[in-house]
């Protein structure tokens, strides 16, 4: 009988890594504070072939409304991906996305359903929030739209 190769022990709930889920209804102050710091974030959308598209973005987080906002150019690939996914989705408008930021061992991810908004008042509010977080006014852009993410999950270690 030939010797068999050793096998790794099966992962069990007792040995699996702990979840870093954050309660969206009551996020800890350290999490909120981290999202107020001036940081470049990433947005992950899905291409039509299902592969991830990750780009740097500025994000604002509104914990009371459970919404994250990103300003974007109407013709950007991220906007095109969100519109295409929303059109193809059977469960209604919107596309599953994630935004993330990190510094050293601190990290925070927000997941949710993104929709494209074109209302000038909503875009102006997003610009105001961007200026508050990033301490600079976004440059004028007549092709600007708002990516609004209705949050469904928060993760992190802050």
Automatic annotation (TrEMBL):
Residues 1-19 have a biased composition (Low complexity). Gene3D superfamilies: Electron Transport, Fmn-binding Protein, Chain A (2.30.110.10). Residues 29-154 form the Pyridoxamine 5'-phosphate oxidase N-terminal domain. SUPFAM superfamilies: FMN-binding split barrel. InterPro entries: F420H2_bilvrd_red/Heme_oxyg (IPR052019), Pyridox_Oxase_N (IPR011576), Split_barrel_FMN-bd (IPR012349). Keywords: Oxidoreductase. It comes from the Bacteria. It holds the Pfam family PNPOx_N. Residues 1-27 are annotated as: Disordered. The keyword Lyase does not apply. This is Pyridoxamine 5'-phosphate oxidase family protein. The lineage of its organism: Bacteria, Bacillati, Actinomycetota, Actinomycetes, Kitasatosporales.
């Amino acid at each position: 009988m030939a010797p068999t190769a050793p096998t790794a022990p099966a992962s069990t709930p007792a040995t699996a890594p702990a979840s870093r889920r954050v309660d969206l209804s009551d996020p800890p102050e350290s999490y909120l504070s981290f999202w107020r710091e001036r940081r470049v974030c990433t947005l992950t959308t899905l291409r039509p072939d299902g592969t991830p598209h990750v780009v740097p973005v500025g994000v604002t987080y509104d914990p009371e409304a459970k919404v994250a906002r990103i300003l974007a150019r109407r013709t950007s690939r991220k906007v095109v991906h969100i519109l295409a996914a929303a059109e193809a989705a059977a469960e209604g408008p919107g596309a599953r996305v994630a935004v993330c930021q990190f510094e050293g061992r601190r990290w925070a991810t927000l997941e949710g359903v993104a929709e494209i908004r074109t209302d000038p008042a909503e875009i102006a509010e997003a610009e105001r929030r961007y200026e508050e977080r990033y301490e600079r006014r976004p440059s004028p852009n007549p092709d600007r739209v708002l990516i609004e993410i209705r949050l469904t999950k928060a993760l992190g270690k802050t």
